[in-house]
Write a structure and sequence with these properties.
Layout (H helix, E strand, L loop, with lengths): L4 H6 L3 H29 L12 H30 L2 H18 L6 H28 L6 H28 L3 E3 L3 E3 L1 H23 L28 H16 L6 H8 L3 H29 L2 H18 L5 H29 L5 H26 L6 H20 L9
Antiparallel strand pairs: 1-2
Length: about 425
């Protein structure tokens, strides 16, 4: 059977394309909630026990709970998919939980229920992220793993970037009259659309994705190392790549928590801020497949090092710009530099994983990405009181540390780690 036009366009296994498209639909639905949930809470649709917190704090806690839960569960979810050797099954399990949880928001009118649903989403994400990335890695070879990781991540990021834009429109234009159902407000419409996106993802994966023929159940104990077993290196290479990924994603999160101060500093409104926020995601999505493919040919580590070196002045510049166009430019350059880190780091981690350990060992890198987002958000919101530029100084300093980690702890070639 010949390749489809889209397979020829990307020169990639159909199953990886479908996983990317499925994750795009899933991310589209999930990113809705970044915008919708705070508005839903502020609309007084939710009541009940605040657990001694203000409405603002509990909203932040509910939003942040997703990242904490999914980061905590990822190694266990990865280990389960290794243990059973069924990647597709765990992707579908996560998407099924997402489908139910996303719809359940329309029935939840207490903070307790919101926290339970958000926790369920975090567990679902742990299954889909670890199993789908393991599947992409196992469907790849060393010569194309960077490109495959880049294409997969780009689709996911496109969905993540489009979700918040669409959600604002959907909420703002409600209520809607639905045949046979009646009138529903913008919130219910958003939750239903998010649920439908997860269901569509599950259908695509169910019919168009299959596990690699050579993936078998693993009886090995989970091996997640922090220290290296090789002389001359302190850190295990996969753990070192996880630290670098954390540093990269830390820089992502510095802008969002200080939106109000950024708008005041740059004399701008919400629209220009959304352009600044989206510039990074757009640049990252466009650049990842290109960089990933180049890393297959020229090596992974060189791109990671160059990307981190570029992040140092770019992140620092974001704390010093005074015009919106300067921030948009800096964020776009940050996205390009981050792409040089992210796709090659995932590919190199995939190169280094042991047979029967792909899910659990790759989960260290994906877990680090989520933790970096959470830590960056927390630090930025706290450190900005000492000066607008301070969070960005911290982010640039961490990028310097990232360069040192890669150059001293990560092998140039896979064979160097054997």
């Amino acid at each position: 059977m010949g390749k489809s036009k889209i397979e020829n366009l990307f020169d990639i296994d159909r199953r990886i394309l479908v996983l990317g498209i499925a994750r795009m639909a899933d991310s589209f639905g999930n990113s809705f909630l970044i915008v919708v949930l705070p508005l839903y809470i502020a609309s007084k649709s939710v009541s009940g026990e605040l657990f001694g917190l203000t409405e603002t704090l509990i909203t932040g806690f509910i939003l942040g709970l997703f990242g904490l839960i999914t980061s905590f569960f990822q190694p266990f979810a990865g280990r389960l998919s290794d243990r059973f050797g069924k990647r597709k099954l765990f992707v579908l399990l996560g998407l099924a939980i997402f489908t139910i949880a996303n719809f359940s928001y329309s029935l939840a009118h207490s903070y307790t229920l919101l926290m339970l649903i958000r926790s369920a989403q975090g567990i679902a994400a742990a299954f889909t992220i670890t199993a789908s990335l393991a599947l992409v890695s196992e469907l790849s070879q060393h010569k194309n793993r960077g490109k495959n990781m880049g294409v997969y991540n780009s689709f996911r990021l496109i969905g993540f970037g489009l979700g918040p834009l669409a959600s604002g429109i959907l909420v703002g234009n409600g209520p809607y009259n639905i045949p046979l159902i009646g009138s529903i407000d913008g919130f219910v419409a958003s939750f239903c659309l998010a649920s439908s996106a997860a269901l569509l993802s599950a259908i695509l994966v169910s019919f168009l994705v299959s596990d690699p023929e050579n993936t078998e159940p693993s009886k090995k104990k989970m091996k997640i190392r922090v220290t290296s077993k090789e002389k001359g290196r302190l850190l295990d290479p996969i753990f070192a790549l996880a630290l670098v990924t954390l540093i990269m994603s830390f820089g992502f999160a510095l802008l969002a928590p200080i939106e109000t101060k950024t708008n005041q500093r740059l004399a701008q409104g919400a629209f220009k801020f959304s352009l600044e926020f989206s510039a990074l995601i757009a640049a990252l999505a466009i650049t990842q497949p290109i960089v990933g493919k180049a890393s297959d040919r020229y090596g992974r580590r060189v791109f990671i090092v160059i990307g981190l070196i570029c992040l140092i002045p770019i992140i620092l510049a974001e704390g010093m710009v005074t015009q919106p166009w300067e921030m948009i430019t800096a964020r776009a350059l940050q996205g390009i530099s981050a792409a040089m880190v992210f796709a090659p780091a995932l590919a190199l981690a995939g190169d280094l994983t042991e047979k029967g350990q792909t899910g659990s060992q790759l989960s260290v890198v994906t877990m680090a990405f989520g933790l970096g987002i959470s830590l960056g958000s927390f630090l930025s919101g706290y450190a900005v009181r000492f000066g607008y530029v301070v969070p960005f100084i911290v982010g640039a300093t961490l990028a310097v540390i990232g360069v040192l980690i890669v150059t001293t702890q990560v092998p140039k070639n896979v064979d160097d780690s054997d």
